[in-house]
Specification:
This protein is mainly alpha-helical. The chain has 2 domains: 71 residues, no CATH class; 66 residues. 83% of the residues lie in helices and 0% in strands. It has 6 helices and no strands. The longest helix is centred in the middle third of the chain and has 43 residues. 18% of the residues are buried.
């Protein structure tokens, strides 16, 4: 086991996020504490890569820390929190783009309908739908602004 730990300590600086998460998970699953050098290497690498961790890697890493009764370093936690905020912001941007596309499609439909027909009831219904889509875009704009703040 010492040889394996020595190898892990030597390579920890080259690990990707999955390697870090899997190594921590393995130690926790075995009920063993990594040596101080291995832990420093893993934690340093986790901090450097925190923004690239996938959800499963975050879960495995935090589970391992909890199982080993350790507290992750402040830098690593900041990185993981930043990752989460970036994902939320990306999701909001994607939703906003979808709503804007829906709004544009609806606006096109309303415009085409207006050029073909002058039926006030049909135009009123289309305008109501457009207003609803615009309200959704405005709500998402507010969420996006608050997420960026």
């Amino acid at each position: 086991m010492r040889e394996l730990e020595g190898r892990a300590e030597a390579l920890a600086g080259t690990f990707n996020a999955q390697n870090v998460a899997n190594t921590l998970w393995t130690y926790a699953t075995m009920g063993r504490e990594p040596g101080a050098g291995v832990m420093r290497g893993l934690e340093g690498r986790a901090e450097a890569l925190a923004g690239t961790f996938k959800a499963q890697e975050v879960a495995n890493t935090l589970w391992a820390y909890a199982k080993m009764k350790r507290t992750p370093g402040t830098g690593m936690m900041r990185g993981l929190e930043g990752r989460s905020e970036r994902q939320e912001l990306s999701a909001l941007k994607l939703k906003l783009k979808q709503v804007e596309e829906e709004r544009d499609d609806l606006l096109d439909k309303v415009t085409r309908a207006a050029t073909r027909m002058f039926n006030k009831e049909d135009l009123h219904a289309a305008n109501s739908e457009l207003s609803g889509a615009q309200a959704n875009v405005e709500a998402l704009d507010m969420q996006l602004s608050s997420a960026q703040a």
